[in-house]
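Retry 2 of 3 after timeout on previous attempt. Resubmitting structure tokens to design endpoint.
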């Protein structure tokens, strides 16, 4: 019975991942119980396990081609490619949790082959389109929309495989010996191949610097850490390997423009272009304008031709190495049991294992079936395809490619990685090889074979996208440790290494007396989300901070004008307004304020000691004016002093400023004449009326006081 909307809101969390590969983009949707609900409903075993994720086949969708084909037209990737997947996601995700559902688009090998500027433009356009056309949670594009390295893709796949097989949650049931209970992971796509595994204890200690520290969190909040080696071989996926193979055939022919290239990896009687397209007689390829491949159907020779593509003779700078001079710790196949996905499954099971899906990989049996198929002429194979002799999934394109793919996988597995040839070499599981019993044992006791190709485990597809979402769901669990470490992975050092990659968009450690902040908490989620109780106060605070910043940047003169306008509207003295903002807040105080200037002004003489009047040209009373050229003072009129004695005393007070007098620092109180000199300074009366600028300071005053002319703002 489907859950109600209310149940979804309270119990389920959802996550969306786009696997943007070289051949297409595939949508994956997962869900899991909210942490609080999982703790309430879980038994003891479930509490000590990772979050239980669910997915359904109808929650996935793949479209072609890959996003890398939009490198020269990034503005079309949204409407022409992503929108179809967004529409599918909207139909699956309940509407009331859309804004809480994180979305990830992680691109792999196809995007890695694009020029950097095209990659960057595409990623920016994807981010922009997603934010403007969906409401899914996308707080940080650098984390949620990116091209992931092959090593990361392999690590996510390793998590997915061990998560489904039970290597994490039930180690005692998956004991491979020597204290080892996890499985190795092999993945191969069109452009690259990956390997990920946890070495045995000896190799892990010897190659500690080569490992990744992986940290997860179980439902009860406990930490689970693993040391994993992962690497990738770009150009070693089946499609890129095929390109290198054709180039090798051309070089071997002795001339790059040879018309016919004999290809033992194609069925006898089949001719194709170098790109793999079947052509008819009379085409421009046959006429010699382009070389073409002529199939000879010799699988043994095909194995020999593809072997050099492993580049085993490449210089190894850090021994030991496997393919292309890439360092890999020694693999102990007694305890390191591998599962292979993607092409490892499709090539070994979708054609040669049709009707034998319960059988494990068997080198002897597999190679026998490949030989039988690839030695047939093309007309016979074509008729078998039409009759669905090898299954409904086997079309003409699959039949053309499978012989090369099979030879490539066999060489990668046995000559490259070194997996024992089960059926030919003595291995611990040789007696059970090639039977349904082996697969049954694998499900009950762990995969005992050195290698097993898989597609689904317990009806869930083994995909690196699952591993990514397991990490993310794990990061949402409140930690039990009062000083928790974040969920994610990085260099194999304690704590949080500099290159640590968080499982979500953000991770903030919490203390036992602080509110829990998970990796995905973000200001974007709380400040602007309508359901957040902090939305309105947060917005007001943001506006207040912005206003203060603008106020501080507007300059001293403009601030004075603001004071004057506020004073006129409220009927408050300008000096009083200035005291409120400039006297009490240190960083707002005028640069001309000295000592306890404002306090002295408040306690000083009353307005009976001076009057406002106009400035008279030729007057020697320069200390009471801020102008030397106009008969009318700017702003407020300049105070006219009633007593010449007061003027004289004022000058004496200013001449003693250097000694601290008149600054409020002397034990002797300032007299009235000193106050007058302070009051009629330029900084005190500048721009106080109608927002007009003050005129230049008096030259005579500058000479007497040792001040430079003030430059207007």
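Retry 2 succeeded. Sequence:
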């Amino acid at each position: 019975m489907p859950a109600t909307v209310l149940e979804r809101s309270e119990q389920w969390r959802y996550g969306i991942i786009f696997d943007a590969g070289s051949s297409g983009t595939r949508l994956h949707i997962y869900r899991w119980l909210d942490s609080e609900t999982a703790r309430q409903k879980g038994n003891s075993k479930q509490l000590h396990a990772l979050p239980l994720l669910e997915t359904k086949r109808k929650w996935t969708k793949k479209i072609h081609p890959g996003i890398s084909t939009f490198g020269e037209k990034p503005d079309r990737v949204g409407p022409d490619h992503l929108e179809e997947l967004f529409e599918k996601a909207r139909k699956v995700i309940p509407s009331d949790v859309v804004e809480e559902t994180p979305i990830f688009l992680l691109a792999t090998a196809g995007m890695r082959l694009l020029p950097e500027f095209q990659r960057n433009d595409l990623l920016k356009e994807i981010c922009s389109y997603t934010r403007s056309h969906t409401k899914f949670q996308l707080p940080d594009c650098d984390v949620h929309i990116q091209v992931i390295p092959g090593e990361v893709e392999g690590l996510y796949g390793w998590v997915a495989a061990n998560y489904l097989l039970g290597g994490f949650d039930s180690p005692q049931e998956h004991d491979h010996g020597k204290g080892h209970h996890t499985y190795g992971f092999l993945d191969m796509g069109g452009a690259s191949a990956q390997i990920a595994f946890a070495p045995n204890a000896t190799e892990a200690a010897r190659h500690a610097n080569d490992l990744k520290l992986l940290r997860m969190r179980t439902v009860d909040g406990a930490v689970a850490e693993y040391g994993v080696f992962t690497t990738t071989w770009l150009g070693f996926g089946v499609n890129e390997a095929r390109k290198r193979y054709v180039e090798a055939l051309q070089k071997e022919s002795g001339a790059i423009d040879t018309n016919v290239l004999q290809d033992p990896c194609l069925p006898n009687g089949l001719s194709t272009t170098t790109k793999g397209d079947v052509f008819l007689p009379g085409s421009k390829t046959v006429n010699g304008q382009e070389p073409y491949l002529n199939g000879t159907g010799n699988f043994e020779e095909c194995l020999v031709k593809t072997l050099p593509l492993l580049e085993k003779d490449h210089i190894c700078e850090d021994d030991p190495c496997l393919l292309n001079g890439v360092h890999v710790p020694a693999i102990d196949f007694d305890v390191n049991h591998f599962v292979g996905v993607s092409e490892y499954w499709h090539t070994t099971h979708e054609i040669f294992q049709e009707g034998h899906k319960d059988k494990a990989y068997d080198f002897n049996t597999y190679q026998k079936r490949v030989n039988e198929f690839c030695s047939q002429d093309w007309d016979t194979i074509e008729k078998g395809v039409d009759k669905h002799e090898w299954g409904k999934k086997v079309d003409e394109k699959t039949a053309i490619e499978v012989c090369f793919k099979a030879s490539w996988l066999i060489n990668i597995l046995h000559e490259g990685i070194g997996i024992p040839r089960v059926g030919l070499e003595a291995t611990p599981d040789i007696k059970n090889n090639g039977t349904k019993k082996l697969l049954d044992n694998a499900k009950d006791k762990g995969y005992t074979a050195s290698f097993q190709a898989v597609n689904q485990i317990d009806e869930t597809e083994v995909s690196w996208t699952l591993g990514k979402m397991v990490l993310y769901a794990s990061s949402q669990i409140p930690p039990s440790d009062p000083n928790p470490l974040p969920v994610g992975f990085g260099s194999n050092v304690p704590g949080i290494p500099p290159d640590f990659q968080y499982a979500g968009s953000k991770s903030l450690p919490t203390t036992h007396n602080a509110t829990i902040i998970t990796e995905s908490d973000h200001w974007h989620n709380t400040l602007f989300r309508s359901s957040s109780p902090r939305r309105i106060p947060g917005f007001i605070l943001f506006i207040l901070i912005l206003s203060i910043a603008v106020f501080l940047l507007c300059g001293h003169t403009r601030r004075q004008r603001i004071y004057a306008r506020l004073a006129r509207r409220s009927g408050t003295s300008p000096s009083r307004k200035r005291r409120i903002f400039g006297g009490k807040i240190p960083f707002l105080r005028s640069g001309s304020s000295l000592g306890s200037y404002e306090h002295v002004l408040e306690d000083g003489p009353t307005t009976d000691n001076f009057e406002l009047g106009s400035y008279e040209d030729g007057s020697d009373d320069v200390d009471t004016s801020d102008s030397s050229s106009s008969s009318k003072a700017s702003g407020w009129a300049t105070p006219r002093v009633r007593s010449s004695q007061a003027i004289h005393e004022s000058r004496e007070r200013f001449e003693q400023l250097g000694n601290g007098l008149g600054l409020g620092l002397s034990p002797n109180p300032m007299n009235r004449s000193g106050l007058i000199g302070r009051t009629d300074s330029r900084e005190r009366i500048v721009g106080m009326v109608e927002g007009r600028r003050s005129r230049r300071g008096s030259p005579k005053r500058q000479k007497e006081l040792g001040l430079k002319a003030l430059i207007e703002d």
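Attempt log closed. The chain is about 35% helix and 15% strand.
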